[in-house]
Amino acid sequence: MTTVIAIANLKGGVAKTTTCLSLGGCLAEMGKIVLLLDLDPQAHLTLSVGLKPENIRYTASEVLLGNLSLVGASRETGTFGLDIVPANQSLSVVNKVLYRQAGYEFLLKQQIRALNDRLYDVILIDCPPACGPLTLNALTAADLLVIPLLCDYYAARSLRQTIGMAKLVRERTNPSLEYRILVTMYDRRIRLSHLVLEQLQQQLGHRVLRTIIEVDARLKESGVAGNPINRYAPRSRGAHQYRLLATELLSGHMMAVSTSRESPMSL
Q: What is the pTM of this model?
């Protein structure tokens, strides 16, 4: 079975794209066949694998409009075992058009179901920082939502909004959706980071992933270089931590359905 993981947060600048690229690279390194799906009109994930969005003919837009299958729109990256369905600005138009279609939230899920289960082990979806048709399609199709989160002053607000969106999707279109929080760009030198992390762990418990992604300039550089961190700087702290994240996700522990309730966020 293909595992579908959406990477989303309604706040931008939290390392969604970096996580999608780095996690995908590390999973491929571990022998998994991975499909990256860029659903952000900004196309940062597409840029991060060395493609020029303006020169791409077939994108996620054609997939959502039903003109192409995921396989038809996919292309290989420079990393073995890592493919991508790219994006460009046309997704902005599709985002508006989808509202007019009944059941638009299920379009991506239908496309994924049409795939041969043996084709990809994991599909990673990079979502835009907005609660619109593109993100709702991703969450409706996903088994797991990973929420990258900064340990800063605005963390609680963005997290409440994103969890609220996930719960809405569970109620309406995907009752099996699970979510986990991934702390990113963590800076041990900042006291507030420690305080926010402690509150997250106390209040959300197992929903906070054990792996923490710390600040590492090599992570930003890897996207510019068009390579996942495990290829760009294989011995870097970022590569090590994203390998740990891949291992944690592969363990399957976080995919188990939890019956526990979270306490209200009070950060």
A: 0.94
